[in-house]
Amino acid sequence: xxxxQIDEIKQGNRKTLARCISFIENESEGYESLLxxxxxxxxxxxGITGPPGAGKSxxxxxxxxxxxxxxxxxxxxxxxxxxxxxxxxxLGDRIRxxxxxxxxxxxxxxxxxxxxxxxxxxxxxxxxxxxxxxxFDYVIVETVGVGQSEIEIAGLADITVVVVVPxxxxxxxxxxxxxxxxxxVFVVNKADRPDADxxxxxxxxxxxxxxxxxxxxxxxxxxxASQKEGVKELLKIIKELFxxxxxxxxxxxxxxxxxxxxxxxxxxxxxNKKILKQKIEEAGNGFNLYTFIRQFY
Length: 297
Ligand SMILES: Nc1nc2c(ncn2[C@@H]2O[C@H](COP(=O)(O)OP(=O)(O)O)[C@@H](O)[C@H]2O)c(=O)[nH]1
Ligand SMILES: [Mg+2]
Fold this sequence. Notes:
The protein is of the alpha/beta class. It has 14 helices and 7 strands. Strands 3-2-4-1-5-6-7 form a 7-stranded parallel sheet, sandwiched between helices. Helix 5 links the parallel strand 2 and strand 3. Helix 2 runs antiparallel to helix 6 (124-133) and helix 4 (56-69) packs across helix 11 (231-247). The longest helix is centred in the last third of the chain and has 19 residues, at 250-268. It is globular. Bound molecules: guanosine-5'-diphosphate and magnesium ion. Guanosine-5'-diphosphate binds next to helix 4.
């Protein structure tokens, strides 16, 4: 039933692509067979994460501009309720982004985070895979780096870019180990602010191989996204990293992460705490936790 849609997506039909994303989002009848029919794709996913306001969308905008210049196509998924791609942005940002909405080589989709637990969108793996399959040269996923989402993005993206700003001075010292571990490249944006150089120096010191498990130092790049400064360097490093990552075991690690996540999601489908509580109340006296949980695995 999906062959026609698959063909259309392959031919670059963005309307069909958008419709299929909605099918997946809504778990419409048969969406799983659509996923099962998708051929493999080598398109890299670039994850961009960091605190709100760090300049992620502005950087993405810069990257889109560069890629468009190079005649490359790019799909952007933005998992951020306050993103300039939909609401809450400065007017200037929105006007600028609107240029891309009319460019056939650029496809932008915003996804709302759901549920109070934070984390990425529940269908982000499937939707980003669909984008990959749609034949874009690059897929960029922007997420706000709070709570779980910053860790999850590492299991989704081939290259994870962590964006920070110089004011976070003290924050770097206390920066969660998780953020340190997931970054393939650090961007210190808003380098037009005072103390940017000192911040970069400190960050590089902290990232020196002696202090963490990476064998190579993680690159740190200074950018002024609002002036498009440093964006070329960032893209260059992303491309180099991707060449390198591609040859090592990262691909199978990523797929294992995704498989684990999806299996967990399927297994836990129909189980939530509310339902459990209800069943426990129904069980009444003589309740035994260990016989109770047997029915769920
Ligand atoms: N001074 C300065 N402002 C920037 C820079 N990059 C982005 N901004 C501004 O910072 C604000 C937040 O940017 P945005 O890209 O929406 O951040 P996001 O929440 O991380 O996506 C916007 O007003 C941008 O114009 C920069 O390099 N320097
Ligand atoms: Mg944003």
